[in-house]
Amino acid sequence: MSTEVLRLILLHSSLEQAEHLLSLLRNAGIAVRPERAEDLEDVEELLQAKPCDLILHEYGNAECSLESLLAYLQENNRDLPVLSVASELKMEPMLEVMRKGAAAMVSADQPAFLEMAVQREMQNLACRRQVRRLEGLYRESEKRNHALLDSSRDAIAYVHEGAHVFANKAYLDMFQFQDSEEIEGLPVLEMIAPTDQESFKKLLRKLSKGKEIEQDVEYTAQRANGEQFKVVLNFSSATIHGEPCHQIVFREASFNPELEQELEQLKSQDLLTGLLNKDAFNLRLEQAIKKAQQGQGQQQFLVYVELDHFKALSDQIGISGTDLLLRDVADLLKEACPEGQALARIRDHIFTLLLELPQKEVEKLCNALSKRLEQHLFEVGKQSVNITASMGVVIVGEGAVSPESLLTLAAETTAEQAADGGNGVRFYKPKANRDDEQDGMHWVHLIKDAMKHNRFMLARQNIQVLHGGEGEYYEVLLRMKGPKDEEIVAAHFLPWAEKHGLMKQLDRWVIQQAVRELSTAQKQGQTLTLFVNVSVDTLSDASVLPWLAKLLKAERVRGDSLVFEVPESMVVTHMKPARRFHRGLKQLHCGMALEQFGLGLNSFQVLKHLPADYLKIDRSLMEGLAENEENQAKVEEITKKAHAAGKLVIAEFVEDSLSLSVLWNMGVNFVQGNFIHEATVELSEY
Questions:
Q1: Of the four, 15, 296, 563, 602, which is 20 to 30 A from 413 by CA?
Q2: Which residue has the higher pLDDT, 58 or 148?
């Protein structure tokens, strides 16, 4: 499910069809903030007033043709994808709209294709925007780098195909030039004394063939006045203005390369273990990423090694013992790794390896390393200690963005292994490639087991009164106890319960426990109102209302203390069963709330068909509310219209005091969120 909000313009003549498209997108887990346009003038006004990510254009729209829409976007330099929406998909119209410049043709009759097309365009647009941001950052970085180069004491030149393209002030001073224009385009060979020019030519030929010069090289250089002097040259690959070149650092021979190398080595070492430190390892990883992106060399693997249960072990052996243990672990890793592979300690008890080996050898090495750690007896003072480690392995591929992103993936993979008991090796697999059905059956088994062995429980979150309302208000939230008695939130298992037809049973369990809690509260004289979410399966179940009536009667609970929540988008796509459910609730004096409210094309039109008692504003409108004027205007508009219609307004996902103040001033009736009160398991457990 995407966490990004899709800002969408629907250029469609039918409001009903436009709402249907929105429902399909929301049902697919895409958060949508829509606007509807009827012609090109509406599109212009909307684009001038608000940001937008995507336009859905009705195929054959009489008020605004696809050609005129695309022409407007091109003339105004708007990078916005356009999807053409047709009643059905046919090859000729699909080719036609793509030739004109639309990204694709989609149809409401093919919701899976619609979802994939929208997701693809969201990802592509995000990539293009990211590229533009990075280009801007790159230009800024180049400016800063030039400033740093000019302030450097080292004489530095950038050379392309043997000619100067840039030289800093120290370089100009070294060779007695007044400004950079004098040296631009001049062969770097002219800086070398005639006796060494032949040798230098050979070195330049190596560079031109893509070979790296890893060691510093000593030459005799020559100034503009003919004076000769010894220099030590250091070569590295670089870019300037986006073009590849080589950076050459000239240091006079009085410079001691051996001492410099020793200092560099000390800077790159982890002092405790003698391995590479995090900065040095990141540099090696960055070079590996660059090779992968250029398709050079053998595939490389990042291995993330985290010692299991390290805190308990550290408490057992103390700080000095921990240092001894980490040194011994480092020595064991060095013995186990082939020469030439990068090995580092990047944090406390976390080690990393960069292996340039075939995958089978990496698997073999990691499994052997895991076994060796498990079987080795570490002597720490007078104690003998056994340890195990969790390992996560990630391929350094051409899609890698940065060392940080790869290390994050490796850490997450290692955490998954640790959560499964640790002491083993896990290779990262993209979520899209995992066996979802097998994963789903795992959750189904847990759900059924929880039903059988009473491992469900309810949490509740306070809904705080701001204006109007008496007593206490809470939303009840389902939780499940996992195999290790850990608390599992509903977001992990409810999608699988919906897919496998288990929601009716879960909904009835939640309703029953909520009614029992209300019964206890009422006997104690407490004024309590509970909000309960129901699924589309329950909404469409004709037997649930008679069952609810019997339950309320048996527990002697007032119906007005129970409010049922359904999403606005669910009501739009299931209006008939929603209206029947609402009529039944009214007869039982129960309340109804529309959640995720306010982002439909005409949300208040829904209330004419289903007059709910409470409106819960969509969470996306709460993001940055205190600073976001657009969101503030929308929330205020919803609140005023709701109050005029006699409805109570709830703002959920409130996360800071400034937002709370804004909502209070707008007259919002209730607020909910972790800032107000985190959901806690306070109700009865079963």
A1: 296
A2: 58
Instruction: Give the whole-angstrom CA distance, residue 277 versus residue 271.
Output: 8
Question: How far apart are alpha carbons 83 and 54 in whole angstroms?
Answer: 8
How does strand 378-380 pair with strand 389-396?
unpaired
439-672 has which fold? Answer: TIM Barrel (3.20.20)
Spell out the CATH class of 5-131: alpha beta
pLDDT recorded at residue 28: 82
In this structure, what are the phi and psi dihedrals at residue 3, rounded to the nearest 5 degrees?
Answer: -95, -10
DSSP at 202? H
Structure tokens given for 298: 């053998």
pLDDT tens figures, 427-465: 987 754 444 555 667 888 889 989 988 999 999 999 999
Asked if 350 and 304 touch (Cβ cutoff 8 Å), the reply is: yes
Q: How many Å apart are CA 13 and CA 159, to the nearest integer?
A: 60
Is pTM beyond 0.85? Reply is no
Q: For the domain with range 268-433, which CATH number is right: 3.30.70.270, 3.30.310.170, 3.30.70.2750, 3.40.50.10860?
A: 3.30.70.270
Task: For tokens 């250091």, name the residue.
Answer: 234
Domain boundaries, the chain: 5-131, 152-264, 268-433, 439-672
Contact between 177 and 224 under an 8 Å Cβ cutoff? The reply is: yes
